[in-house]
Amino acid sequence: MRTALTRGGVGVAALAVAASTVFIASPASAAPGEGTLTVTWFEDRYTDGIYDTTPTNPAGEKDQLRQSGSYLYLQTADDAWFGAPQRADGSYVFPDVPIGEADLYVVDPTGTNQNAFWDATEGAPEFMPQSNVSFTDGTFLHEDGTRTTGLSGPSSSAGRLTVNIAEEATTTRLVGMAGIGANAEVTVDGERTTGVAELSFLSNGTALPATEWDTGRFFAARGTDLAKLVPGEIGIAVDVDPRRYRIESVTAGSNIDTTLSIPLTQTDGVWTMETSALVRYFDSVVFKVALAPVALTDLTVTYFADNVLDGVYDPTLESSTGYSDEKRTTDYLYLHDSQGQWWATTANADGDFVFTDVPAGAATLHLTVPDPYVSTSVWDATDVTSLTEVRPVPQAPITFTGGTYLAPDGTEAPIIATDRLTAAVPLNLVEGEDAVEAGLASADQSAVVVDASGEPVTGATVELLANGTPLESTLLDGVYYSANLAAGVYGVRVTAPAGFQVTSVRALSALTGEELIVEGPAAAPTGVWTVSSDQLARNFDGVEWEVAVAALPVVIPGDGAQPGTGAGTGTAGSVKGSLASTGADAIGASIAGGSALLLLLAGAAALLIRRRAAQ
């Protein structure tokens, strides 16, 4: 690629021919080492980057060939200069010029950088950079095939396109032209403001700097000049300090028609539009960025292991084995704020996690789950007043880039996260200060149904519960298991097999074997029995349920017993340990029932004999 000679100032495109003009006849055909370049230059009035005379812009105009009497210029590989006029068919032809790499110059009709030029020959439009073009001793190529030497080029701004002229062939190029620009206004609460946002414009994915020429007013620039853009996609990227401002809206309009609203597409802080929505091919898009001050808060999070399993943070209480609630201090905590920003922090000297000066409003706190291979449950303990209010929050991995780490010492640093398993707590942060407490536990339950001999019984229906909600459980060798439990009221719902009833329910601590206080009916074919988690030894303890069933006793008609009653029945209440007799008492009841049955059969036989004798 060659660089054209330049002169100070800008001139108008002109043909300067020396006094001793020489006319040279064109050869009949290209000689070896020569080729032809044919150029079509069009005004992209529909502003879509391609030459198509079918669609019309909002002003009713269609693409058209450039009709102005302008010349195009070519600097060939051997540093020779040529000029060509527009022909009757609208093309510009450089016949029989040296082959190889050459630079085509398309002079801006205004003489300055008021238009953008691009190669529209094929594929995506390719921007043609602009520079001043000036030369002497060039050759002018007339349409009739004659040539004039002594050509001087203009001292004007021109778009430059590098082409490769093929030998004994015609190389074609399609060049588009438009005068599209991009501007922006930034306001805070409706007032144009400076220093509140970082902007950059985009032209078909290429970033261009935003130059502020007035308070809160910007234009897309190339160097120090107003940039003219290749049609296609124009966008604006907006970056604000999320702890100072929020982006309320970004809109786009026309500089020509201020009533026109242009649709935008937003992705990751970039708003884009199609230039074909503009009124004319020398229109400019005007982006309006509306900001508002952000209310800030300091969020303090207490993340604790609930060793007392009472659902709240109270380090003054102890479990049955002497353990108290403990703050977790080894994790990262993350916050996804109302502006879509990610924040992270670690515990301070007090064992708390403090997110300083983050936006108030809707947010999600993400608490790191200590070990994804251990069943763990996390809950928002901030407003919990009883165990039955504990509700575990969902867990899922998070991935983000561009986050900010807020160190306890007040410094900041970039941070990312990849597939980090967290528990998500939705929040609505208030301005000023806010606080959250979050508990963690990994308790579990198991249950087995046995007969009087202690052998597992089949046919029973068993459901493990937490705060009345059925839990997913697995059945292995007659034992039902459920893990990943928060603090709460644990329970078991049992329906005995047909002909049986539940005669006793026991609950033991999995860690200590201590028998727990059970709430539920004394004996029944079906029922729900519960224990409170604060009876357990630690936050990773568990409840082992042992449910005993026995055959329903035989009821003899006429013995005064009411249907559905008999040995082993009772009323609901609070008991510890066995809720009804088993073992010897049950055996005695069975013997008594059998004796009564024999007496009944003997009486029936005697009555039958007497009746037959009477006949």
TrEMBL record:
Transmembrane portions of the chain: 586-609
Coiled-coil boundaries: none
Record key words, sorted: Membrane, Signal, Transmembrane, Transmembrane helix
An individual GO BP term: carbohydrate metabolic process
InterPro entries named among the record's database cross-references: Ig-like_fold
Cleaved signal peptide residues: 1-30
Keyword Signal among record annotations: yes
Keyword Transport: no
SUPFAM superfamilies: Cna protein B-type domain
Name the UniProt record assigns to this protein: Alpha-amylase
Organism per entry: Diaminobutyricimonas aerilata
